[in-house]
Amino acid sequence: MKNGCPSADYSIHAMTETLLTIDCPDRVGLLARLTQFIATRGGNLREVHQFTEETSGWFFARMAIETKTLSVTIPKLREEFSALGSELKADWNIADHAQPKRTVLMVSQSGHCLADLLWRWRSGDLPMEIVAVVANHETFRSVVEREGLRFIHVPIAKETRAADFEKVGTLLRNLRAELVVLARYMQIIPESLCTEFTGRIINIHHSFLPSFIGANPYKRAFERGVKLIGATCHYVTPVLDEGPIIEQEVVRVEHFHNPDDLLRLGQDCERLALARGLRYHLADRVLIHGNKTVVFRD
Amino acid sequence: MKNGCPSADYSIHAMTETLLTIDCPDRVGLLARLTQFIATRGGNLREVHQFTEETSGWFFARMAIETKTLSVTIPKLREEFSALGSELKADWNIADHAQPKRTVLMVSQSGHCLADLLWRWRSGDLPMEIVAVVANHETFRSVVEREGLRFIHVPIAKETRAADFEKVGTLLRNLRAELVVLARYMQIIPESLCTEFTGRIINIHHSFLPSFIGANPYKRAFERGVKLIGATCHYVTPVLDEGPIIEQEVVRVEHFHNPDDLLRLGQDCERLALARGLRYHLADRVLIHGNKTVVFRD
Amino acid sequence: MKNGCPSADYSIHAMTETLLTIDCPDRVGLLARLTQFIATRGGNLREVHQFTEETSGWFFARMAIETKTLSVTIPKLREEFSALGSELKADWNIADHAQPKRTVLMVSQSGHCLADLLWRWRSGDLPMEIVAVVANHETFRSVVEREGLRFIHVPIAKETRAADFEKVGTLLRNLRAELVVLARYMQIIPESLCTEFTGRIINIHHSFLPSFIGANPYKRAFERGVKLIGATCHYVTPVLDEGPIIEQEVVRVEHFHNPDDLLRLGQDCERLALARGLRYHLADRVLIHGNKTVVFRD
Amino acid sequence: MKNGCPSADYSIHAMTETLLTIDCPDRVGLLARLTQFIATRGGNLREVHQFTEETSGWFFARMAIETKTLSVTIPKLREEFSALGSELKADWNIADHAQPKRTVLMVSQSGHCLADLLWRWRSGDLPMEIVAVVANHETFRSVVEREGLRFIHVPIAKETRAADFEKVGTLLRNLRAELVVLARYMQIIPESLCTEFTGRIINIHHSFLPSFIGANPYKRAFERGVKLIGATCHYVTPVLDEGPIIEQEVVRVEHFHNPDDLLRLGQDCERLALARGLRYHLADRVLIHGNKTVVFRD
User: Fold this and answer.
1) Is ipTM beyond 0.85?
2) Any idea which residues of C carry the catalytic annotation?
3) Which of B116, B164, B241, B284 is catalytic?
4) Would you call B208 an interface residue with chain D, using a CB distance cutoff of 8 Å?
5) Which residues of C fall within a CB distance of 8 Å from B9?
6) Is residue C9 less than 8 Å (CB to CB) from chain B?
7) Which of B250, B256, B293 sits opposite D250 (nearest CB)?
8) Is residue D241 flagged as an active site residue?
């Protein structure tokens, strides 16, 4: 226990369960083969969601497997599953939740999402290992370091942007980041990094996408006179604010709210949408298919 | 097509899909056996939700099976499944959505839920066969009859209540009602009828249960000064407003709303909660377990 | 009472209250002058909302005045107020709610909003006089006529569009329409009509504007993979879907919802957003300023 | 600036505005007299909400007065207003937002609300002066002290409860607390303290009151099988969980959520409802009348 906060207890639950996520072309008997595979190795299923999208004929499934009755280890399970996976032409993953994902948070000068994520991580609601917080400003050094976490300042300047982001890329590789969370980072990620970390960079955009793509969404929402504002948690792709959406949240606003009020009210949406989207990702509850997501919510 | 409204088209979709719903004690390999059973008969699974409740160790599943590739008829499928069902000590059902449920609507003098249900039924959103509307007042005879539906007036008087409800019971039996919907019926159903039609009477209560059980919930909500009011769709049991909850809806209210405003705003909650709860039931998406429900929402 | 539905009772409440709405440049002592004006004529204020927008320095107010203690008639009150109104360079209105607005509903082939409006009007929730329902298809003639309302079919054809809409314009003038409600009319209103009826045409758009302006919003929402869909009630201006927004509503959707599901779920948003926006307008609770609205909700 | 967080900037806005809140029996011309009083002293009104409750005939108003044009000081304004206040038999207050309220936070062993309040206070969203955090456990000492705030541990034991709470009472008096916030304090406040601090103790209850009054609301919500859970921010009175409600928030839950999930999801409701309710109180936007509140939301 650090700083008077209860330490994360997710490892206990994680060690009793593994997750198989899979998507592939549909066929008759597919779920039977998968469940059979698990059953013959003694695995009990706590929760299964399977869903075939009608238009594309694509099969998606998420299976939570109790590990205590399994007759094989997780690595062995993976090895044995790989032949089946290949045969089905499937994208699949057997998660090892005992190993929380190595995560890098990136921030700029707005700290509401960072503070929220740190608290939820500390409380055990977000099972990740924060290997560093990378920022283009020094603003939140002490907020981060007092949690016993590493804070790395990588300034981004207009003139040296390409080189600066090469430093970021090198850093992410050296840190062996499995996930990057842009907690209001306010910088456009270069295409090469987006591609290298496909499906592994999560952003929170401060509007209800596809409304108000780009800069100053609250100001534009104020000018348009919308009656609800929102936030969108999505994977980052090279096209700005166009990546697969994981979660969205909205709040009602009225004529008496000025742009500062929208910003204040919107921040609660941002925090909730990011925390939920991130939690789904960390629990392997999100499958990406094309530019959309299948989210098995918890 | 009647009265210029499009006729219900649910039969088309219903004929391409059947649903297996089941709940029983959990064991290793259970879902594998079920999916195997379907696969060996050529059935493809469009959507599967399975969930085991940790505290009770109870297994719940809902499987949507494409019928066009099935090698057996639905009645045959049922017959063959019954041995497995017995072995698993399961409550189970294989639905035949080509046969919409024979449904009786019951109303009193508030028509907002009735009007909403009639419209949704007419639009094809509620796949039921309305065999009659039974009312303790004449108020909505023409509203019902102009839809080409049967309206039956069974007055309920304080002194003759027991006998009046025997008439209602006889009527429901003669109509071979598979489902009874209390669309603001405003009468307490006798215990014997509740028991006879367990899990087949759906009520809409005009409060967010368990708040404001019983009479005059809006008035009491006003007096308590709550900031949200709501409505609850639930199965009727002998204990008033205590049956398994299917769906709830709320709306924000403010100090300037008087009891009439609460009633007006609450009616939108009632209509939505009832329509959604009823739709889930008609699609065999609700499993009752003890005093709770498992709802596989659509 | 017609068709077994309670008749509208709004006239009773309307006769006890009048509304002064006003917007103008702000100055010190403005509300004092207005309230003084009312008080010296014996008017009691039930509810006052006043609000000055900081950025524009514009003053907005809505005052509900009890009429029973007024020493002058409503027409006299108007006459006496006009000098003050001119001096303040104000847009103002003193409503006469004993005279519900002459309203024309316009529909095409989707009836969910029409059915909802008819029911709410019949219940007394929407204090308007429906002088006609104008449609470009015959679909809902009987639904309308059985309410004792006038149904007028004005077909709109691609080749004769301009002439067809001249007929519509003539019709609206002959009917002395004070308000036009596009209840899923699905036709773009010509600029000349938009201008002639500025602030008097209300539309329901089936998306959460400014997302998905134009055609097929549900299909596009499905393709984008948004997690919330919505509807927008707004005044019509010559620029498509860009008029002042009165009300918006959203509903959560998931990956398993197909375009038909979005349509079904979105219709509930459309009905609620239109009914609420229309109600605010009918109660003179909406002030238009530039391309935005001030809505004093009830 | 402390710990890398922006310091509170509320003082800037607060110094340009004062608030008159008042409630009293209604009479003709009341608002005219009040606005006249302000206008003759050069005060401009930014926002006025006035509302008369029909059933009780009680008048409520909140007036935001721009101070820069005022010809008198705030203390002088108060002095001059007191005669009018007496004449009207009014409860009234002219706030001095340059002086944030002296506030004591009280916590036990759940820190989610505390962490949230500290962050919002630090960001300037909650204009209060936190004079101390009082806790019956040591759990959050470092979380509090690292913010530069005073942490006071007052253990509460079953056997010495009365004496322990006398210590708390003495402490609150010595700290000259104007407001006490029970941020999941989990102890029942003795009647004498409730009475002494009437309207000045705010609690967050982890259920949607009046559902699940008392202990273990999430567990009871789970057992009842409700489909929405919530939180309630209210003033504390001697009757447990029965005080005037300021704000409520809800979130949808499903059958697959266990009691731990309800707790996790409910915490987001608690944080939002408490933060909003507290903000309204600090901005003098809440008027208590009997056991209800009038909340002029921002």
Assistant:
1) yes
2) 241
3) B241
4) yes
5) none
6) no
7) B250
8) yes
Chains that touch C (3 or more CB pairs under 8 A): A, B, D
Asked if D179 and D104 touch (Cβ cutoff 8 Å), the reply is yes
Q: Are A227 and C245 an interchain contact pair (Cβ–Cβ within 8 Å)?
A: yes
Chain C partners within 8 Å of D27 (Cβ): 44
User: Which residue, D281, D274, D272, is CA-closest to D179?
Assistant: D281
What is the tens place of the pLDDT at every residue in B23-59?
Answer: 999 998 999 999 999 999 999 998 899 989 888 889 9
> Which of A38, A43, A50 is closest, CB to CB, to B48?
A50
- For residue A224, CA distances in Å to A255, B147, D81 come to 11, 43, 41
To the question of domain B101-295 being in CATH 3.40.50.170, the answer is yes
CB of C50 less than 8 A from some CB of D:
yes
Delimit the domains of chain B by residue range. 17-96, 101-295
3-state secondary structure chain B: CECCECCCCHHHHHCCEEEEEEEEECCCCHHHHHHHHHHHCCCEEEEEEEEEECCCCEEEEEEEEECCCCCCCHHHHHHHHHHHHHHCCCEEEECCCCCCEEEEEEECCCCHHHHHHHHHHHHCCCCEEEEEEEECCCCCHHHHHCCCCCEEECCCCCCCHHHHHHHHHHHHHHCCCCEEEECCCCCCCCHHHHHHCCCCEEEEECCCCCCCCCCCHHHHHHHHCCCEEEEEEEECCCCCCCCCEEEEEEEECCCCCCHHHHHHHHHHHHHHHHHHHHHHHHCCCEEEECCEEEECCC
Compute and round to an integer the Cα radius of gyration of chain B.
21
- Label residue A199 left, alpha or beta by phi (over 0 means left) and psi (-120 to 50 means alpha): left
Place of tokens 């062993």: D109
Residues of chain A contacting B45 with CB distance shorter than 8 Å: 30-31, 50, 52
CB atoms D28 and C36 under 8 Å: no
Q: Are residues A32 and B36, on separate chains, in Cβ contact within 8 Å?
A: yes
Spatial distance between the Cα atoms of B201 and B204, rounded to a whole number of angstroms: 10
Strand spans (E) along A157-244: 179-182, 201-205, 228-235
* Cβ distance of B51 and A52 shorter than 8 Å: no
Q: What is the pLDDT along chain C (298 residues), one digit of tens a residue?
A: 333 333 333 333 445 888 899 999 999 899 999 999 999 999 999 889 998 988 888 999 999 998 888 999 999 999 999 999 999 999 999 987 778 999 999 999 999 999 999 999 999 999 999 999 999 999 999 999 999 999 999 999 999 999 999 999 999 999 999 999 999 999 999 999 999 999 999 999 999 999 999 999 999 999 999 999 999 999 999 998 899 999 999 999 999 899 999 999 999 999 999 999 999 999 999 999 999 999 988 8
- Number of CB pairs, chain A paired with chain D, less than 8 A apart: 51
C43 three-state secondary structure: coil
State the CATH architecture for A17-96: 2-Layer Sandwich (3.30)
Subunit contact D35:C35, Cβ cutoff 8 A: yes
d(CA A233, nearest CA chain B) in Å: 23
